[in-house]
Each structure stands twice: as structure tokens, then as C-alpha cells.
Amino acid sequence: MRQFLLVFIPIFVAMDAIGILPMFMGFTGNLKPGEKRKIINQSLVTAFLIGIVFLFLGKWIFMVLGVLVSDFKIAGGAVLLAISLRDILTHEDKHKLPIETMGAVPIGTPLVVGPAVLTTIIILLDSYGIYPTVLSFVANLAITWVVFTYSGRISRFLGKAGSKAVSKIAGLLLAAIAVMMIRKGLSGL
After folding, report:
1. Distance CA 22, CA 46 (A)
2. Which of 39, 60, 62, 90 could form an SS bridge with 67, CB 3.0 to 4.6 Å?
3. What residues contact 87, with CB distance under 8 A and at least 6 apart?
4. CA nearest to 24, candidates 131, 128, 147, 164
């Protein structure tokens, strides 16, 4: 159980389902329930496929490119730090997107599974193995499905200020994880 939590928590923080809820609501707020369900399904299938492909091919890509896991930890940590700082310091406005592809891009990727999640899962795979990483990834996608499915209720409960506060706290945790990854990468070299 402890090992599962050690893998689950970093993916949970990187995926940040509650933090992306305001953006999801902005993209899907005016849609009919059927359209919203279609977008939720499309986004989670996209996120799952990208995450799983990266889990299984990420190390091979590293080998072909001559990239060490320590190099990726440092680079990934730097990217995570930049993403977390952007999320902490800014707020993105709503954009009108085509309904046909909105679930895949930008919701499925890069919002649900973007650089933060991909960096996190490849490093966790190296540290904890395939089974805890895949299980934690799928569990976090299930949480994201619940958050998206009940987005209206969650948003009303948290309010705008609450959603923003949760997003900023997740950003701070992501920044701390990024610094830890850079530290581990540097010590691995």
C-alpha cells in the first residue's frame, strides 16, 4: 500500500484533476449533457493511450536518443517547475474550441496528460516498476473521470475561489516535486 501511495500521489498532483476543473468547465460549460459525456470519454481515452504508449516506449526512446534517466529527471523537473510556476502565477482564459476534437486536444492532452504527467510516470516507472505505475495512472484517470462527470456539482461546492485555491496548492506541490526530481537527477549523474 505504501508503494502504491508513493506512486499515486505524484501522479495525482501532476494530473491535478481539480486544478484543471475550471478550464474543463470553461470549455464545456455551454454544451448539452450528451456532448459533454462524449468529450469526457474522448479526453480520457486520449490521455490513457498517450500515457500507456509513453510508459512502454519512453525508455526505448531514451535509449535511441542516448538520454539517461538522470537527464530526463533534470529536464522533466525543469519543465515541471516551469509549468507549476506558470500555473501558480497566471490564469488562462476560456477559449472556443471545436467540439469534435476538444476532448482529445486540449483536454486529453495537454491538460489531463501533458508534460507533467509524462515526466512523472517515466520517472516513477524507473523507481517503482510497471505495475504500481500503471495502476496509479489508471486510478488517477478514474478520479479525473469522476471530477469531470460531476464537474458542475464540484464547481458549485468549491466556488471560483476554492477551485483557484486548490489549483494553486497543487501547483506548489508540483513545484516541490519538480525540485525533488532535479535534485535526484543531479545526484544520479
Report:
1. 20
2. 62
3. 19, 167, 168, 170, 171, 174
4. 147
**b/e per residue, 126-146, with b = 16+ CB within 10 A?**
bbeeeebbbebbeebbebbbe
What lies within 8 Å, CB to CB, of 29 at 6+ separation is 94
Strand, helix or coil at 53? helix
pLDDT, tens only, 119-147: 889 889 988 999 999 999 999 999 999 99
Own/partner contacts of 180-183, CB < 8 Å, gap of 24 or more, are 180/77, 181/73, 181/74, 181/76, 181/77, 181/80, 181/119, 181/123, 182/73, 182/74, 182/77, 182/78, 182/81, 183/77
